[in-house]
Amino acid sequence: MAMPLLTADRLWRAIVAGLCGNIAHGTLMFLKDRMGWLPTFQPYQDLQRVLGEVFGESVQPALPWVLSFVNGTLVISLVFALIYARLPGRSGAAKGLVLGVLGWLAMGLFLFPMLGRGLFASEAGLGLWPAAFSLAMVLAYSVFVGIAYAALDRTRSTRG
To answer: Is 4 domain-assigned?
Structure first.
């Protein structure tokens, strides 16, 4: 079976769902900062440092946040829209959960080691807490993307 095309209708639903996921993720990150949770676990600062090393110069602190926002609003949400029908689960939240677990595995196995934090940020010196919090970060994003995408899909289908 061929992968469905990304129509204009799917595109705007994916982007709106991605924005919803980014709001959920951003809210959790805001709470992390305000509540002082895991103060030495700073993935955005780690990304900023690595980008600076790669480009050989200082990188503005906003750049990792902007990259994350664009990635969540456009890239991941568009991929989600394309694979939505193939993901296991009956609800948008369940499909988002699957996407989130896959994303968390990728982040734990590839991104954190590239940032010098080891598998699942195990070298952050905080035990299992960074792995657990990164799962919460990713699920906050992905479950809200799934809920929003499914809600927008229902709205579209009820209009005809």
So the answer is: no
